Amino acid sequence: MSQDLTVASFFCGCGGSDLGILGDFDYLNQHYAKLPIEINYAVDFDKFAVQTYNANFLHKAICKDIRNVSIKDIPNFDILIGGFPCQSFSTVNPTKDTNDARANLYKELVRILTAKKPKFFICENVKGLMTLQKGEILKKVIRDFEAVGYHVVYKLLLASDYGIPQRRERVFIVGIRNDVPLQYQFPEPTHTQYPTQNKKLWNPLKSIVKELRIDEDKYYFSQKAVEGMKNAKNNMKRGLFQDLEGQCLTITSHLAKVSLNSRDPVLLVDADKEIYRRFTPKEASGIQSFPNSFVFPVSEIQAYKQIGNAIPPVLMWHVAKSLTDLIANDCALKKNTKQSKRKKGHNTNEAVALN
To answer: Burial level of 277, CB count in 10 A (0-12/13-18/19+)?
Structure first.
């Protein structure tokens, strides 16, 4: 590629997807190279998420509801990215309305694709998008993307398989405009649960959480909370403490208010004394694959929310790199073909001259 691809980011949040698609960051002693991409537009309706975003990127996001974004205000771009709101599709709450306003926000992406016609798009959502209503919701989303001129593929990816110590499963949806003769392939896992010759072992939770016992009292559950967990009904008793040698359960957006009776992961500091604590924001961001240099200049409540809602940067990097590699290889092939034709024509002209 002779120049960087341009990206427009919708529902950008604090910037997990955007950091991933740009690259040039370090995580768990590995460097994720810069990808041939620049972001020329980013938008989110959450002012606190935009505050965090703008503290971490040279280009700035704007705070606006996507439904109020005018097409004329969006510059041309090559790739659309968007982790459209997932609360309506989450399997954590099976009683939610899958037809509420949030569930239809992906149609705003369809609107933008229709008008701007970028060559590619990458979207992300929760596993529930694939399973709710026996998969009919996902089928409808894909049909809507296909109807505006895109070939669409999707796959459920596990964060652990890409070096992130978290059992986070997310569906990625990649679209290529119908007139672009390329076939996207999702990235192969780089890590595995069991030893193989070609893959590294999953990174354990202890690679992020170095110490169970920390000094800050505010992260510990009270004795009352522990007793509440012990006295709860059997179907509520959770206390889902995490094994530092293994993988963490999914980091959610409400860790600031996590309960020992919830399905959220916690840490057991001392089994004999029944001491539990929640993850710190720094630990949560690390489990989500944010580098240590990424800052959250907001309250802890907002930080937890942004971290849990984010697309893990490392996971996005792998998905995006597979796309940029595909584009680069195609460009190289076309260049070589063109050069070969020129060389063949030159040789033919020489032969004619000799005759």
So the answer is: buried
Region of 285 please: left (phi>0), alpha (psi -120 to 50) or beta: alpha
The type of residue at 170 is: R
Tokens of 223: 């004795």
The CA distance from 197 to 199, in Å, is: 6
CA distances for 12 relative to 84, 124, 180, 231, angstroms? 9, 11, 26, 41
pLDDT in the model for residue 239: 87
What's the Cα-to-Cα distance from 152 to each of 27, 110, 159, 205, 331, rounded to whole Å? 30, 13, 22, 34, 21
Q: What value does the CA radius of gyration of the chain take, rounded to a whole number of Å?
A: 23
| pLDDT in the model for residue 195 | 86
The residues annotated with a catalytic role in the active site are: 86
Query: Please, are residues 246 and 204 in contact by the beta-carbon 8 Å criterion?
Result: yes
pTM of the entire structure? 0.91
Asked whether the beta carbons of 98 and 106 are under 8 A apart, the reply is: no
**CA distance linking residue 236 with residue 261, whole number of Å:** 6
Enter the tokens of residue 121.
């798009």
Rounded CA-CA distance 157/316 in Å is 10
Low-confidence ranges of the chain (pLDDT < 50): 90-92, 97, 351-355
How many residues are listed for the chain in this entry? 355
DSSP-assigned beta bridge partners for residue 30: 27
What pLDDT score was predicted for residue 99? 59
> Quick one: which of 188, 158, 161, 151 has its CA closest to 172?
158
